[in-house]
Amino acid sequence: MSVPQISNRSGRTAWSRRGVLAALGAAVPAVALTGCADAGDASEESGGSPTTKASGSAEARTPTVTVTPADGTRKAAFTSPVEVTVADGTLSDVEVAGNDGGTLSGSFDDARTKWTSDRNPSSGTKYTVTAKVPGAGTHTAGFVTRAPGETFVGYFTPEANTTCGVGMPVSLDFTHAVTDRAAVERAITSGTFVHGNYWASPSVFGSSNTNHGCIGLHDAKGAADRSVPGYEFYTSSMLGDVVVVRNSGERTVDPANGLNGWNLSWTQWKAGSALR
What we know:
Layout: E1 5-7, E2 13-15, H1 17-46, H2 50-57, E3 64-68, E4 83-87, E5 93-98, E6 103-104, E7 106-108, E8 114-117, E9 126-133, E10 137-144, E11 154-157, E12 171-174, E13 194-197, E14 215-218, H3 229-235, H4 266-271
Parallel strand pairs: 13-14
Antiparallel strand pairs: 1-2, 3-4, 4-8, 5-6, 5-9, 7-8, 9-10, 11-12
């Protein structure tokens, strides 16, 4: 752009007012354009682009491992399996070891974000849980289950994996009184039994009442004599067979004296249940 010049007598070049204004008017847009370009350059140098911010917010989170019962629990319940879960990660290995030398095996879910023990922990035992998370190292936790004195135990009849007759009631004998009878039904396992008797005279069997309630069978010491009734009875019967005693002249055995549920009518049996 050319700007009109005015020469004076001194030989100096003078700028006309119109020329100065024209020059200024032409320079302003250039400054504005340059400013816009500089702002863009500064934005790139400062790293403030939307792409950079988005990538910064997507940073990986640290995996968080949770153990149930919680780490440090001193009186943990032992009625549920042990569970180990992880958030923002996966589990590669889990070990649960007790101070009694035993361990709890378990399995993972499909995503390997949860591990559950195959059985419940034992009572009165200190357990150490070790969980390995790829990229996050090893997580360790510990807990102690309640002592037996703070709980009660139920003894189950018949024993596991046994074969018994149809007369064998299924029962649980607890070490403490049960307050929630709707949850469990009690049974007393003591009292009247059928057993061999080798010390009495053979003449008393079937004719005289010489015991305190149990049914005595003529037997031989060592139970190896095939000629006595006791041997024949035990080789042809099993635990849980129903024994009917006739013509004894005695009272019916109290249903509370041993496993004598068969001495109750169905109405009496249901009346003793909290689930009726």
